[in-house]
Design a protein that fits this description.
By secondary structure, the chain is an all-alpha fold. Helices cover about 85% and strands about 0% of the residues. The model has no long low-confidence stretch (mean pLDDT about 95).
Length: about 70
C-alpha cells in the first residue's frame, strides 16, 4: 500500500470510525500517533529556532543601543 493509499484509507476510517473494524481503528491510531510525534518534533524545533532568533536579535539590539548612547543619539 502506498503512502497516498494509506492516507486515504485512514481518512475513510476516521470518517466511519463507528463502523470500522478494530484492525482499521488500530491502523488509524498508529498513523495519527506517528503524525502527532512528527508534528511535535517540528513544533519543538520551531520553538528552539524562535528562541535563538530572539536571543540573537536582543544581543544585536543591545549593541546598537549602546552605540547610539555613545554617539549621543
Amino acid at each position: 500500500m502506498t503512502q497516498k493509499e494509506k492516507s486515504e484509507k485512514v481518512l475513510q476510517i476516521i470518517k466511519e470510525y463507528k463502523t470500522s473494524s478494530n484492525k482499521d481503528l488500530t491502523l488509524a491510531m498508529d498513523c495519527i500517533q506517528e503524525d502527532f510525534e512528527y508534528t511535535k518534533k517540528l513544533v519543538l524545533k520551531g520553538t528552539e529556532q524562535l528562541d535563538k532568533l530572539e536571543l540573537t536579535y536582543n544581543t544585536i539590539l543591545k549593541e546598537y543601543q549602546k552605540r547610539m548612547k555613545q554617539n549621543g543619539n
